[in-house]
Design goal:
Helix content is about 15%, strand content about 40%. It is mainly beta and about 220 residues long.
């Protein structure tokens, strides 16, 4: 699990394509690698990757064909910068929201407008994910935990403050840039609780959790 609070901006040093996917080598730059071990998870542009090799300044990770197909990694190149976050600890200050590192889809930047000292971005909203995205709800963009400020038709707006621009790869975004998005994990669980049909084999036990109960309790 992650929090969506970016710890450093890394750089892709190598991409080695193989029959099973690809192996990436990421220069970690300012990321503290002193407590990293083989098998640890590092969110790389919001994608949970397992460390298979590392030193003080870089790590290697394998990316499956499935991940290449479902994320923006298929279009990445050597020299690109990526957001980095190590997996959260039990003692970690929870500054963002619950992030699994499992990308749900790809969104595209539709407009960029300066508003005071902040920047407003409109992103495309994939139709199959639209029902998970709510105004003032949480969303993850390339691993960064953010708040949705507005919804309109098939798009959503984010307002990015200077600190976020400085500490992430937002400074490199342009019109048309494609980003990895992960919707709010709680929204997914709520949907599962409210589903009437069980997708697994057999009949699911009837749940006492209803939409009215969730609203009454402040969860919906």
């Amino acid at each position: 699990m992650f929090t969506g609070i970016i710890e450093a901006v890394g750089t892709i040093k190598a991409i080695n394509i193989n029959g099973q996917g690809a192996r990436l080598v990421i220069a970690t730059n300012d990321l503290d690698m002193s407590d990293v071990k083989l098998g640890d998870s590092i969110a790389t542009n919001g994608i949970c990757l397992t460390v298979v090799d590392f030193d003080q300044h870089s790590y290697s990770a394998d990316v499956s064909n499935e991940t290449l197909q479902r994320t923006g990694f298929a279009n990445y190149s050597v020299g690109m910068q990526v957001n980095l976050e190590k997996a959260m600890l039990a003692s970690t200050r929870f500054g963002g929201h619950m992030v699994s590192g499992h990308v749900d889809g790809i969104s595209e930047i539709l407009s960029i407008t300066h508003n005071g000292n902040s920047i407003e971005y409109w992103f495309s909203m994939p139709s199959d994910l639209a029902h998970y995205i709510a105004e003032k709800g949480s969303i993850t963009i390339d691993g960064t935990s953010l708040t949705v400020n507005a919804l309109e038709d098939n798009k959503f707006r984010l307002t990015i403050v200077p600190h976020t621009v400085k500490e992430t790869i937002f400074a490199h975004y342009q019109l048309g840039t494609k980003v990895n998005i992960e919707v709010d994990l709680i929204a997914r669980y709520l949907e599962r609780l409210l589903m009437k049909d069980n997708m697994a084999e057999g009949q699911a036990p009837k749940s006492n959790v209803t939409e009215s109960l969730l609203k009454k309790s402040g969860f919906a």
